[in-house]
Amino acid sequence: MSSVLRPAIPEPVTYRPISDHLAIAPPVSVVIPAMNEAENLPYVFKTLPGWIHEVVLVDGNSTDDTVAVARELWPDVKVVPQQGKGKGDALITGFEACTGDIIVMVDADGSADGHEIVSYVSALVSGADFAKGSRFANGGGTDDMTLIRKLGNWALCTTVNRKFGARYTDLCYGYNAFWRHCLDEIDLDCTGFEVETLMNIRVVKAGLKVQEIPSHEYLRIHGASNLRAVRDGLRVLKVILKERSNRRALRRRSHATTLTAGRGESS
């Protein structure tokens, strides 16, 4: 008696409703770098949508109850110890721990509204590779920037737009989302607050499709920020100059390779 091979039945795809008009299959991971943010986490977690796949809390050696509070608020939270000291190190550590296809970056100080995540995810499933939050796009805003910081952000953003052909309205903002595959294209290698700038530059250099998402930044609720405008502004400028220099070097190498190939063909 011959046996008949039947085609395998694919497993049913689970869709997560994220709004009244949209449901998605890709799992979404939210990365929250935190150091001594126990008082702020309740405000952060209460705005996170219930349909996200996982929350990854990167603990920067907190000396308060940050980890305990996170586990109480979100029992399935994945807590990973930070490798290194700066925000860049924390985010890289968190990204490596994610299992979702979409990754969302959210600060732990209560300045970001988790309800906005649906806008970021909607942009990604609609075709964008990188959904970049902007406090200065139409519909965005900020309660937490001094005039000096606004001027500095504008100057640095203008520089990036001119040097790399971007069209950003904001540069130094930590609320972003992207498909996991983007990490292979941008290869992050910085440690501090300049990490957002590096990401924004490298997604442009990689030719990825970027969509800005209007976002409102609220005041930090408790505690003081580790951000230092002058010090970190200089670090951001250093990253811009380094990436510009690397781009020129790559262009020179590409031109030299083309000339060499041309000589070989003509000989």
From TrEMBL:
Stretch forming the signal peptide: none
Gene3D superfamilies: Spore Coat Polysaccharide Biosynthesis Protein SpsA, Chain A
Highest rank taxon of the organism: Bacteria
SUPFAM superfamilies: Nucleotide-diphospho-sugar transferases
Pfam families: Glycos_transf_2 (PF00535)
Residue ranges constituting the Glycosyltransferase 2-like domain according to the UniProt record: 29-166
Assigned protein family: Belongs to the glycosyltransferase 2 family.
Record's protein name: Glycosyltransferase family 2 protein
UniProt organism field: Streptomyces gottesmaniae
Lineage, broadest ranks: Bacteria, Bacillati, Actinomycetota, Actinomycetes, Kitasatosporales
